[in-house]
Write a structure and sequence with these properties.
Number of helices: 4
Shape: globular
Distance between the termini: 10 Å
Structural class: mainly alpha
Largest sheet: none
């Protein structure tokens, strides 16, 4: 299972199974969304508004939301690696 933005929950999310069953299951209501003045992840909300399954179906990925919802505790290089991995996950999602 992966998130709307391309994170594989089981492999890449430290919160998965530590109280979080996955972003899709909790409808984007991640604990950190409050840092952005909302109850729902802005990326999740955007995909739902556009009525798309995930960001891989959006022609603007990665968009400003991806870059504005970054984890401030990681370096620029780590963040860029995460973006690249998420894009790869979205590209390969139909091959699984």
């Amino acid at each position: 299972m992966f998130t709307i933005c391309g994170v594989y929950c089981e492999k890449e999310c430290s919160d998965f199974n530590n109280g979080c069953p996955g972003c899709r299951e909790i409808k984007g209501r991640v604990f950190w969304a409050k840092n952005y003045g909302t109850e729902t992840c802005p990326i999740y909300y955007c995909a739902r508004e556009k009525e798309i399954k995930d960001c891989g179906f959006c022609s603007r990925v990665p968009c400003r939301l991806w870059f504005s919802t970054r984890d401030p505790s990681i370096s620029e290089d780590e963040f860029n690696q995460q973006i690249a991995l998420r894009l790869k996950n979205l590209e390969n999602r139909n091959e699984d």
